[in-house]
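Q: What residues go here?
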């Protein structure tokens, strides 16, 4: 049986982002969780867009890197769309790097340049003022 040692992983991420400037998470494979699951950070089927946006809303926090090669469906198409639209609206410079193909190459949103670049097995999205 799979057990998560953290009682509230979302709260941990939100609290961390208010104290640090960057966070890198390397999701490992859990033998109890099938690779088709929408799994990330000990949770399944979570709508991550508002959580990640909340993390970036802290002025100190500007970098989130996620490597999740085993559970590539953790971020829904809807979450990816919301992040594509909302990250440029935050008004600050951010780096959001994730595994997967969630972003279209380069675009402008709200007069801010958004650059998505492929790095090995992940895409990086930079939002510039």
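A:
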């Amino acid at each position: 049986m799979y057990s998560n040692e953290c009682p509230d992983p979302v709260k941990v991420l939100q609290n961390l982002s208010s104290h640090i400037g960057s966070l890198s998470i390397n999701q490992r494979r859990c033998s109890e969780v099938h690779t088709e699951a929408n799994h990330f950070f000990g949770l399944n089927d979570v709508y991550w867009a508002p959580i990640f946006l909340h993390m970036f809303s802290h002025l100190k926090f500007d970098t989130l890197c996620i490597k999740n090669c085993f559970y590539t469906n953790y971020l829904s198409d809807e979450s990816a769309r919301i992040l594509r639209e909302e990250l440029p609206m935050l008004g600050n410079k951010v780096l959001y790097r994730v595994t997967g193909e969630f972003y279209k190459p380069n675009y402008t949103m709200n007069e801010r340049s958004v650059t998505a670049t492929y790095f090995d097995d992940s895409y990086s999205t930079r939002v510039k003022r």
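A: Context that may help when evaluating the design: The longest strand covers residues 112-119. The mean pLDDT is 79.
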